[in-house]
Amino acid sequence: MFSQNAITALRSARSVVVLTGAGVSAESGVPTFRGAGGLWRTYQATSLATPEAFAKDPNLVWEFYNYRREVLAPLEANPGHYAIAAIEAQVPDFTLVTQNIDNLHRIAGSKNLIELHGNIWRVRCTNSACERFTNSQENRQVPISPLPPRCGECGSLLRPHIVWFGETLDGNAIRSAVKAIRKCDLFIVAGTSAVVQPAAGMPLMARQEGAYVLEINPERTDLSEALNESIQEASGVALPNLFEVAFGG
Ligand code: OAD
Ligand code: ZN
Fold this sequence. Notes:
Layout: H1 4-12, E1 15-20, H2 23-26, H3 39-42, H4 45-48, H5 51-56, H6 58-72, H7 79-90, E2 93-98, H8 104-107, E3 113-115, E4 118-125, E5 137-138, E6 158-162, H9 171-183, E7 186-190, H10 202-208, E8 212-216, E9 229-231, H11 235-247
Parallel strand pairs: 1-2, 1-7, 2-3, 7-8, 8-9
Antiparallel strand pairs: 4-5, 4-6
Helix pairs in contact: 1-11, 7-11
Bound molecules: 2'-O-acetyl adenosine-5-diphosphoribose (OAD) and zinc ion.
Zinc ion binds next to loops.
């Protein structure tokens, strides 16, 4: 179980950052990327989730996202998501940085949320001169039709507000995350294999900046050794426990 250091760190923290990956949504039924049954292996996402694929055949890429929307639409947040939202409500300053696009953190009530890789329910314009190029809009239609969807402002193609392979992340999102990491006392990394940058570098950055860094993952990762503490447990079990011992009763 958690060390007294972790519990004290959470109780006394003025500023907390939580970084999550696909593993936090595994107990909601979202397939992870790596490991057994990885979604991306099955659906060749590495070839579909690219700007090149979209340029060549936008309808095919949109069909893939329609499929992913159908898979994600009925899924519910799990106790891990709720525990993260509950921690946010207890500490003075809190930032959640997620690599997940499934929107489940927001459904669970997380407020200060940085979605590094975008959000499956958002779309944006492909025309860089259009205001919807930067302002993505929520669109929960399942499936989106007719294909391909077009921008109501300028008529250009709309695309999923998702970071594709080969694309760079939103600079503002990274800057906000780094700012939060620099000032946090406690950093919790949960459900990520920590192999995809820049998220993978964030736990060590937090450690270097003096935060207590706690990992939650049923498997050890390349990071585990370098952090203050690593708990080999599912996040849907470990995070509610951590909240309970720190703030419960
Ligand atoms: P991965 O699929 O790489 O890693 C999921 C991690 O979750 C693994 O380390 C598992 O051991 C762990 N895990 C599994 N079940 C868990 C549970 N119940 N509780 C806690 N952890 C559990 O997913 P990410 O690290 O999120 O990028 O992958 C990072 C990025 O790679 C994704 O955001 C995606 C992909 O390329 C983009 O789409 C841009
Ligand atoms: Zn437009």
